[in-house]
């Protein structure tokens, strides 16, 4: 079907039309020359989008009396204007432009959105639309145009609704970094409402009946999904905020328990060890008296000493000798820091793999190579990102590691050793810039699509419509 600039049309006082842009293949409309503008029934109306492309999302119950049938829609917003109805009520309404399907031909039409739950017709075609269509009205007849049926909404092969616009939030301390901007771009490209929320500025109303997260002096709205991007310094408070969002019923891309496990390297290694996931030999002790033992457990020097809580290669030291290892361990303990020792995989030669896992699949991978003189391949430590092909075994191990910790999205770091791939650590907030550039994969878009796949519109079957606005 294509836009048709003008064809003669004759409407009856009642007609069936389709609104294909809104996934509404059939809707019965009243043709009313007494009304200036056209109207579509809508509830849960919410503006979103960007200043250069404002949008609005809403829900339509196309079949009168059937509130279990819901179609979630979104459309370009053309304005907001005051409208006075036939009964004298005045309200501000959002106006959209979409296409109306009349006998297989598409015509642009402008309409306002309002709750018409108490009305017989879910749509009203006003004289402004009739004039733009060059149409006439036969007030003595109904259905001068092809007759459709509401049966299309119950067929197994019925057209699916436009992907439900979701309300999303990204928890971050830096809304300007690449990963956050990429996620916002990807979400907006798929018509979702998304905002970056500064984690440290969230505060919580913790109660049994109505738990809330507050921000800037008022409670935040109910979000469909939360994307936690919590920096290591914000881990403790950030986890409390994520838990509170979980309490409100929001779906979290990575749950607080999974983030907590991944942030504690010792905890993460213990969990993965129970699942049989290969990793470098690791040792942990509290007492200074056991320093020599933990060094020997990992095969002696050279060995790696690392803090149990850290990220981006910070708090990771290569000890070339056992004397150096003892000195580093002593210095860390003087700072009251928990640390572990780990065997040094020399054959990795300053390289590791970063596998980006979403759900149950590795969607992108890169090889990170340490700068000259360093063994840490982290990009934040000057490492270089390169494209790479990974094996099925490496992909399988990466997915198992993410799954073991309960992460929906994870960056799994793997070393290639003479005895096979070994998981170094798992990151719950992996950076996107390096891996997108190295792999050519739009990871941010895949994350948003994964969220969509996990969230579905909930159909309610109330005996009466709780959203209906009473009309006198």
UniProtKB/TrEMBL annotation:
Keywords: ATP-binding, Ligase, Magnesium, Manganese, Metal-binding, Nucleotide-binding, Protein biosynthesis, Ribonucleoprotein, Ribosomal protein. SUPFAM superfamilies: Acid proteases, Glutathione synthetase ATP-binding domain-like. Its EC number is 6.3.2.-. Its cofactor is Mn(2+); Mg(2+). The keyword Heme does not apply. Pfam families: RimK, Rimk_N, Zn_protease. It comes from the Bacteria. GO terms for molecular function: ligase activity. Residues 269-452 form the ATP-grasp domain. One of its GO terms (cellular component) is ribosome. NCBIfam families: PRK10446.1, rimK_fam. PANTHER family: RIBOSOMAL PROTEIN BS6--L-GLUTAMATE LIGASE, RIBOSOMAL PROTEIN S6 MODIFICATION PROTEIN. This is 30S ribosomal protein S6--L-glutamate ligase. It comes from Asticcacaulis aquaticus. The lineage of its organism: Bacteria, Pseudomonadati, Pseudomonadota, Alphaproteobacteria, Caulobacterales.
């Amino acid at each position: 079907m294509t836009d048709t600039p003008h064809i003669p049309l004759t409407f009856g006082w009642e007609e069936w039309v389709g609104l294909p842009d809104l996934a509404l293949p059939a809707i019965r409309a009243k043709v009313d020359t007494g009304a200036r503008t056209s109207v579509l029934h809508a509830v849960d109306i919410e503006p979103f989008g960007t200043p250069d492309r404002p949008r609005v999302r809403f829900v339509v119950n196309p079949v009168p009396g059937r509130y279990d049938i819901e179609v979630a829609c979104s459309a370009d917003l053309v304005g907001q204007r005051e409208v006075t109805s036939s009964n004298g009520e005045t309200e501000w309404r959002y106006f959209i432009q979409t296409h109306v399907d009349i006998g297989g031909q598409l015509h642009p039409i402008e309409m306002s959105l309002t709750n018409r739950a108490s009305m017989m017709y879910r749509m009203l075609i006003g004289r402004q639309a009739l004039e733009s269509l060059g149409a006439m009205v036969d007030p003595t007849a109904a259905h001068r145009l092809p007759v459709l049926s509401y049966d299309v909404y119950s067929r197994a092969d019925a057209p699916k609704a436009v992907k439900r616009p979701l309300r999303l939030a990204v928890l971050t301390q830096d809304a300007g970094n690449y990963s956050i901007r990429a996620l916002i771009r990807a979400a907006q490209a798929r018509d979702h409402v998304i905002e970056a929320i500064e984690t440290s500025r969230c505060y919580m109303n913790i109660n049994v009946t109505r738990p809330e997260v507050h921000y800037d002096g008022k409670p935040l709205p109910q979000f469909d999904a939360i994307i936690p991007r919590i920096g290591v310094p914000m881990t403790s408070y950030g986890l409390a905020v994520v838990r509170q969002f979980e309490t409100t019923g929001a779906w979290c891309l990575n749950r607080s328990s999974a983030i907590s496990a991944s942030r504690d390297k010792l905890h993460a290694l213990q969990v993965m060890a129970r699942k049989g996931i290969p990793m470098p030999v690791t040792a942990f002790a509290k007492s200074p008296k056991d320093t020599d033992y933990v060094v020997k457990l990992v095969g002696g020097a050279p060995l790696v000493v690392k803090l149990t809580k850290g990220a981006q290669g910070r708090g990771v030291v290569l000890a070339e000798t056992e004397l150096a290892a003892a000195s580093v361990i002593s210095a860390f303990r003087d700072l009251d820091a928990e640390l572990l020792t780990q065997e040094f995989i020399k054959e990795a030669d300053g390289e590791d793999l970063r596998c980006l896992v979403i759900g149950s699949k590795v969607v992108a991978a890169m090889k990170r190579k340490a700068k000259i003189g360093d063994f840490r391949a982290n990009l934040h430590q000057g490492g270089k990102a390169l494209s790479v092909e990974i094996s099925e075994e490496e992909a399988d191990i990466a997915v198992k590691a993410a799954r073991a910790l309960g992460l929906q999205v994870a960056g799994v770091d793997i070393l290639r050793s003479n005895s096979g791939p070994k998981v170094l650590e798992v990151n719950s907030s992996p950076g996107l810039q390096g891996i997108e550039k190295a792999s050519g994969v739009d990871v941010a878009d895949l994350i948003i699509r994964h969220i969509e796949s996990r969230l579905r519109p909930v159909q309610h079957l109330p005996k009466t419509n709780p959203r209906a606005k009473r009309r006198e």
